[in-house]
Design goal:
Largest sheet: 7 strands, parallel
Number of strands: 7
Order of helices and strands: EHEHEHEHEHEHHHE
Strand content: 5-15%
Bound molecules: NADP nicotinamide-adenine-dinucleotide phosphate
Distance between the termini: 34 Å
Number of helices: 8
C-alpha cells in the first residue's frame, strides 16, 4: 500500500486539458491540493469546476505561460501562497504543431522549444526552493515516446523537444539529489485527448492498429504513472523514464501484430 497523498501540494502545468487534466484528477482523487496552470483562463475555470469535489483536496487555477520565465516564478509563488509549499511539480504543458521539416522556420522551432523544453526547465527551477523545503520534492515531466524512442513525420521539432527534456531530466536529477528532490519522466504513447483529436480519425485508427492493446491510452493512465513517481515509495528512483503506451514501441515489424 502506498503512503497517502492527502494534503500534498501539487502543481500541474497544462492542467486545463488532456493529459494534464487527467494527472490533476488522479492527484485530486488521492486527496492532494492541486494547482492547475495554463494560458486560457476560461478553460482553467471549466477544468477546476470539473475536478473540484473529486477528492478531499482543493483545486485552484493560475493563468501562466510556461514559455515565460516570470510566469514560471509566479506559478511557484502562487502554489506556496495557496498551499503553503510545493511537494510535486508535474511539468506537463506542451504543444505539438506538425510541419514538414523542410518547411520549418526558426519561429516554429523556437515556439516548440520555448514551451516544451524551456518551459519545463524554468518551471522546475522556480519550484526547487519549495520542493527542497518539502523534504520529499518530486518532479514528473511529461515527455513522449515521440523523439526519445520513435519518430513521426512532421514532428521533428516536437520530437527533438521531448528528447531534450530527457537530457534535462537525467542531469538535473543529479543536481537536485542532495536536495532530496527526484526528477523523472513519463513517456506517453498515443493518449486520447483534445489535442490528439485534432490529428483526425485516420491517424487515430492507424495508431490503434499498431498498439498491441489496440486502444489509445487514457489520460488517467498517465496520471497513475505520475502518481507513482510522486509517491514516497518511489523516493529512490530518479532520472528515470516510464513508457506508458499499451506496448506500442514493442513490435519489431507489423508481422509481430498479425493475429493479435
Ligand atoms: P492538450 O490536450 O493540447 O493540452 C495541452 C495543455 O497544455 C493545455 O492545458 C494547454 O492550455 C497547456 N499549454 C500549452 N501551452 C502552454 C504554455 N505555453 N504554458 C502553459 N500551458 C500551456 O495536450 P496533451 O495531449 O494533453 O499533451 C500534454 C503533454 O503530453 C504535452 O507535453 C505533450 O507533448 C505530451 N504528450 C501527449 C501525447 C498524446 O497522445 N496526447 C502523447 C505523448 C506526449 P493552454 O493552451 O490554455 O495554455
Amino acid at each position: 500500500m502506498f503512503a497517502s497523498m492527502e494534503g500534498r501540494s501539487v502543481i500541474v502545468t497544462g492542467g486545463s486539458k488532456g493529459i494534464g487534466k487527467g494527472i490533476a484528477r488522479v492527484f485530486a482523487q488521492h486527496g492532494a491540493h492541486v494547482l492547475i496552470a495554463a494560458r486560457d483562463e476560461s478553460a482553467l475555470q471549466v477544468a477546476a469546476e470539473e475536478l473540484s469535489g473529486e477528492g478531499a483536496g482543493r483545486v485552484e487555477t493560475v493563468v501562466a505561460d510556461v514559455a515565460k520565465v516570470e510566469d514560471c516564478r509566479r506559478l511557484a509563488d502562487v502554489a506556496v501562497e495557496l498551499f503553503g509549499g510545493i511537494d510535486v511539480l508535474c511539468a506537463n504543458a506542451g504543444i505539438f504543431p506538425d510541419k514538414p521539416f523542410l518547411e520549418l522556420t526558426e519561429d516554429d522551432v523556437d515556439a516548440v522549444l520555448a514551451c516544451n523544453l524551456k518551459g519545463t526547465m524554468f518551471a522546475v527551477q522556480a519550484c526547487v526552493p519549495a520542493l527542497e523545503a518539502s523534504g520529499h520534492g518530486r518532479v514528473v515531466v511529461t515527455s513522449s515516446i515521440t523523439g526519445p524512442i520513435t519518430g513521426y513525420p512532421g514532428w521533428s521539432h516536437y520530437g527533438a523537444s521531448n528528447a531534450a527534456q530527457l537530457g534535462f531530466v537525467r542531469t538535473v536529477a543529479i543536481e537536485l539529489a542532495p536536495k532530496r528532490v527526484t526528477v523523472n519522466a513519463v513517456l506517453p504513447g498515443n493518449i486520447a485527448t483534445e489535442g490528439l483529436d485534432e490529428m483526425g480519425d485516420d491517424y487515430i485508427r492507424g495508431t490503434e492498429a499498431c498498439i498491441p492493446q489496440h486502444r489509445l491510452g487514457t489520460v488517467e493512465d498517465i496520471g497513475h504513472a505520475a502518481l507513482f513517481f510522486a509517491s514516497d515509495e518511489a523516493g529512490y528512483i530518479t532520472g528515470q523514464t516510464l513508457v506508458v503506451d499499451g506496448g506500442q514501441v514493442l513490435p519489431e515489424s507489423p508481422a509481430a501484430l498479425e493475429g493479435i
